[in-house]
Amino acid sequence: MEMGKKRVKYSVVDAFADSPFKGNPAAVCFLKEEKDDEWLQAVAAEFNIPATCYLTRTHPDESSVVRNSLGAATTPRFRLRWFTPVHEVTLCGHATLAASHFLFTSGLVDADRIEFLTLSGVLTAKRVRETRETSSLKLETSEAQDFFSIELDFPVVQLTESDPAEVPSISKALSGASIIDLKRTTTNNNLFVLLQSGEAVAHLQPQIDQIQRCSGNGIIITGLAPPGSGFDFFSRYFAPKIGIREDPVCGSAHCALAPYWSKKLGKCDFVANAASPRGGTVTIHLDEKSQRVLLRGKAFTVMEGFLLV
Length: 309
Prior knowledge:
Layout: E1 7-15, E2 24-30, H1 37-47, E3 51-57, E4 66-67, E5 73-74, E6 77-83, E7 88-89, H2 93-106, E8 113-118, E9 121-129, E10 148-155, E11 159-161, H3 167-173, E12 179-185, E13 190-195, H4 198-203, H5 208-213, E14 218-224, E15 233-239, E16 244-247, H6 254-265, E17 269-274, E18 280-287, E19 292-297, E20 299-308
Parallel strand pairs: 2-3, 6-8, 13-14, 15-17
Antiparallel strand pairs: 1-2, 1-20, 3-6, 4-5, 6-7, 8-9, 9-10, 10-19, 11-12, 12-13, 14-15, 15-16, 17-18, 18-19
């Protein structure tokens, strides 16, 4: 190590995946002290993957087990920020799942529930333990990563109508795909496009340069899953304007997908396929009363190391 340099621990975690090199990669950096935004963005650009997130304790001297005035253990809290290679975002599902996996497997918390203070308010992650028999983890290297899923508690993202005059340009960006429905998210300003089928979603070849010319920060595409696939719907997310040609599994997109498909299918529980080339599975429960979405998935650590700062 270079003289005078401090080390920042990081992990690269594949989220919404039960084996390496699938799902959506996120870098998780654990900071003992706050860093300036320029440094945070530079590190995210250096990793150059869909998201780099930063964890700091709400109280720097806090132990892994937080206790109240009566000595009872309480839920540990961390500040959490998310950056793409080009700027900070207000909500990121897969990086939150990755951060939770990092904390649950690193020994930094002794709890099955974590709270995160974020730009989208307080978000929670819960460890859902599994038996060896029910877990789908197959590789020997998964032994050290335990058998569990992680359930994230996120806010619903509402949809609003979009200008139908945009349909031709969006269809062109989606290689001439037939657009059945077009909406827009009320947060993050994403276009939301229903295609004729899940197969159309999976096989689509995006025109990234044309997508960059479309309004909005990105395009969520979705379609009904084919019978017998084991899924309810397929989706993909393209966001070149924020430095992500295709987000392999966009957790936050499912906060809009869940209420949309709930109205179409008349139910609140789904198994969704992120039909990107890497692929990923998201299990979803929509709580209509509280307007929250519970996203459940697995994660797998593929890399660990230190940044020298």
